[in-house]
Amino acid sequence: GFAPRSVVVPRGEAAKTAAQLSALWEGLLEAGVQRDTPVVALGGGAASDAIGFAAATLLRGVPWVAVPTTLLGMVDAGLGGKTAIDLPQGKNLAGAFAPPRAVLLDPECLATLPPGTPPGMAEVLKHALIADPALWSELGRRAGRGDPRRALGADLLLRSARVKLDCVAEDPFDRGVRRTLNLGHTFAHGLERAADYALSHGHAVAVGLVAAAAVSEAQGYAEPGLRAEIEAGLERWGLPTRFPARWLPAAAEALRRDKKARGEQVEAILLHEVGCAARAWLPFEALEDGLERVAYSGNSMSRSDATPVLAASPERSSRSPTAPRLAKP
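^ that's the sequence the OP posted. Answer follows.
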């Protein structure tokens, strides 16, 4: 047998600071961690980011296991080995590739989340958009069927996770097809920073997907209508598709500090259609234009004025039939 020791981290992005990382290191050492001691990251996506990075750097690396308890953690943050903390200049700017030794998924954990659609559903829809049109269609059929925390089902949960795992297996160090997983994220990171992290990552990704579709249409990568289809798909699950225009200046500034930026350009992940992604180097102005296209002069984050303002909302297999299709720009 064994006697586990616990080290508690704050919820959400508060777990991903340099000060908290130092506290994690000290807590793990005080708990007696050695190089062969497994560290278990139990919690949501921010917890796995921070704990995984602490494990990757403590004693030059100790083994860790991810046990995600939120949807975002199950299909995204807990998979693939990207670990990181935030810096004052932006999100996930200090990190390491450190895959967990194992990932344990228990769909029953989703029933413990607050009522409503888990923000991590945006990542599930993102996986469908970059790699699996059939999954996109099935998600549309299941939307609105009872408790959204259970509507996904273990089958689609694993199918979504498989999209990411396939990308990681082909491109473990994020140099090619794995980058398509960043669809919507360049926008999302800027929106999170503009909202001072009062906006959940999943909700920011949802809006980022719409912005990416808007840029895809504006740059001629996609036919008109893709953005409307994506907006409708997100809204069926109760996810936001707009953001307050007052966030524009701060979000645009954050775009220019993105870790994928090179000179006056940044790598954008766009779409030709559902299931076919494209990588393109675009000037910052093109992405700022995408943000402007989904900004809203009021406070709502939906096309419907009846939708309440969304603030902080932390989330309390069959193989994917198609590998991600990466189109050349």
